[in-house]
Amino acid sequence: MKKRIFAALLATLMLFSAFAFTGCGKEDNVLVMATNASFPPYEFKDGDNFAGIDVEIAGKIAEKLGMTLEIKDVEFGSIIGGVQSGKFDMGMAGMTVTDERLESVNFTSSYATAVQVVIVKADSGYTSVDDFFNLDEEGNWVSVKEGVKIGVQQDTTGDIYASDTVEKWGFGADNVVRYKTGNEAVLALNAGKITAVIIDNEPAKAYVEQNEGLTILDGAYADEQYAICIAKDNTELLDKVNKALGELIEDGTVQSIIDKYIPAE
């Protein structure tokens, strides 16, 4: 009899523990989005609140899914790992789809097009990306000029592109300086620690507006598409987010949000 009473008590305790553990996890009606809130106009802090294109689109997606959006502001380089492990439901941070990232996570359809550009000091004498390189007689890049250092936000596509070899239109990893945020890279440029900053066009425009004496070189360094990353084993959420995103694109909501932050020139 004692054994049966003990077994019943143990089963009850195990059941209670299971419920207690479940209560500590993420709620089913909460959509946890990881971002890096130093990338205006896509994500940034407005006082104590989050704002930006990605923030508003994510909010609309959560509404369509009948969920509450919860935003986690983390280092850009930790977003994919956090999504992959299940710490976050999705990552939305002006993130470009690349073959390397697709090895770790899935991506939704694209919701925005962006370009990578180069910021320099207005009095630097640089007028194009070609000015950073030694050229052959046909105008092809041969090598990076001595002393050229390119600042990037670490783990972004700007970092990936710039760190590649000259043959693949990069500067080589030894000529790239990585910073945790784009703002830190711009501060380093202002301080004369680096030659230029490669970053997405919209944040670049915001940084140039905020920092007198900086300018953006003409022409794009690279073109890219933004999408939302979701864990490979969470295909159910991927399908739901893709459906909601598709509806928001079709009814013009996504474009209206983009236009709010990036008015047509």
Summarize the structure.
By secondary structure, the chain is an alpha/beta fold. The protein has helices spanning 2-23, 53-64, 79-85, 99-102, 157-163, 182-190, 201-210, 235-250, 253-261; strands at 30-35, 38-39, 43-46, 49-51, 68-73, 90-91, 105-107, 112-121, 133-135, 141-144, 150-153, 176-179, 196-200, 214-216, 222-226, 229-231.
Q: What does the model show?
A:
With 265 residues, the protein is of the alpha/beta class. It has 2 domains: 26-111 and 227-261, D-Maltodextrin-Binding Protein, domain 2 (3-Layer(aba) Sandwich), CATH 3.40.190; 114-224, D-Maltodextrin-Binding Protein, domain 2 (3-Layer(aba) Sandwich), CATH 3.40.190. Helix content is 36%, strand content 25%. It is built from 9 helices and 16 strands. The strands form 4 sheets. Strands 8, 11, 12, 13, 14 and 15 form a 6-stranded mixed β-sheet that branches. The protein has a 5-stranded mixed β-sheet with strand order 5-1-6-16-7, sandwiched between helices. Strand 2 and strand 3 (43-46) form a beta hairpin. The longest helix has 22 residues, at 2-23. It is globular. The model is unreliable at 1-25 (pLDDT under 50).
The biggest sheet amounts to: 6 strands, mixed
Cα-atom radius of gyration: 23 Å
Give the number of domains: 2
Termini Cα gap: 82 Å
The sequence of SSEs as H and E is HEEEEHEHEHEEEEEHEHEHEEEHH
CATH class annotation of the largest domain: Alpha Beta
Low-confidence stretches: 1-25
Question: By CATH's scheme, which homologous superfamily of the largest domain applies?
Answer: Periplasmic binding protein-like II
How many DSSP helices? 9
Estimate what percentage of residues fall within beta strands.
Answer: 25-35%
User: CATH topology of the largest domain, which one?
Assistant: D-Maltodextrin-Binding Protein, domain 2
The helix content is: 25-40%
Tally of DSSP β-strands = 16
Name the quaternary structure.
single chain
Structural class: alpha/beta
If you average the pLDDT, what whole number results? 89
